[in-house]
Amino acid sequence: MEPVALLAAGGGSLDIGPAAALAIGLTGLGAAMAQGRAVAAALDGAARNPGAASIVRGTMVLGLGMIESVLVLVLVFLMTKM
Questions:
Q1: Around Cβ 27, how many Cβ atoms within 10 Å?
Q2: Neighbours of 56 (CB within 10 A)
Q3: Residue 79 CB: number of other CB atoms within 10 A?
């Protein structure tokens, strides 16, 4: 029986393992790329204006924490669904 028909009939469950692996991988890739861009922008800002380096550093750390939290939330969500 097809997966859509199986779910429509109200029985069985689908294997979400491959989808979860893809989701974790793509989220990890996106988080890594975002962190790289954030650090590059912070270094560029600090190089242009050394007096604002402490402000830029604090903002960068806050942004990196937010990016990491998205990755952790996706991981927790997918682990609870499996």
A1: 18
A2: 19
A3: 10
